[in-house]
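Intended use. Records such as the Integral membrane bound transporter domain-containing protein entry shown here are meant for training and evaluating sequence-to-structure methods. They are not intended to support clinical decisions.
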Amino acid sequence: MSFTSRFKENAATVGNGLLFAVALTTPVVLGVAFQAFSLVSAASFGAMFALLIAPRHGALARVVGISTGGLLVVLAAALGIALQGRHDLVLVLLFLLSWLAALPRPDQAYLGLMVKYVASSVLLTSFGFSATLPMALAFLGGIALGICLSLVSMLFEADDATTPLEEFKAFLHGATNGRLFGVAVPVTVLFSTLAARYFSFSDPAWVGLTVLFVMHSDGATELFRIWARTLGTLAGVLVSAVILYNVTAPLHIAVAIGVAAFGMPYAKGHYVLFSFAITCAVLLLIDISMLQMGGDMSLLRWRLIDTVIACACVLLSNLTLRLIRRLRHRGEPPAGQAA
């Protein structure tokens, strides 16, 4: 790689890091200014969601793709709230959404992320997460901020990816993961979530949510993600605990959030580092949102436990899939051997 190409790549990464930092810290500053701490995390998550899901294919695709994804997440949250207490319907819906989330291939980045976030929204709200209309509006406000920042990123993002419409057409024409994996994901999500609820976990939905984002159609990649996610989350929890134990001012915590957000583009492709950065950012944002209730240091312990249990469930699912595939191919002649 030439010096010019390397310089442009590094400049793009720095630019994206600054945009992520602005996306996550702007709501904190506004929350402090208007004393609206409970809305901080919703707005920041909306902005982060927009930047993570943004299709790298022109202004129109970005605006339409991000807006559509944001509206679907809000509608999914409303549906989850409406289904609270109706456990049978919730389980059926979670199975269907988790199945859909498992089907997009790794190269269908927009479609895969969008369905995962929609499924996560239903999962969190149907299991008791208290979402309100002001929080939904704050999330959409964060989406608007994220759209603006995504358009700015076009100044230094040179490569165009496929559009969401092209991904959707390929998906409809059969470009999906295998059927076995498509069934394994929803089964693992439901099993892990129900097990966490049975054992009275603080937030059972976090376990199922983690399963959604760790499971991968490539078994080897999935095994790597299991230990990488656990290690990154452990480091993120420990660093967040140190920060929250020593720092109480929201604006000072916002500095740490900005640093974690700035590192996200650098950490892409490095699952340990990305898990560490996003864990720090999420836990610090949630603590600021609960500042008027004394923060939520207890979430740190539960987040680590949720991750370990979820990764154990994914490992069990991975080993089961390997066993099933081995049994299905037993007795078949080697690939190079004539029939």
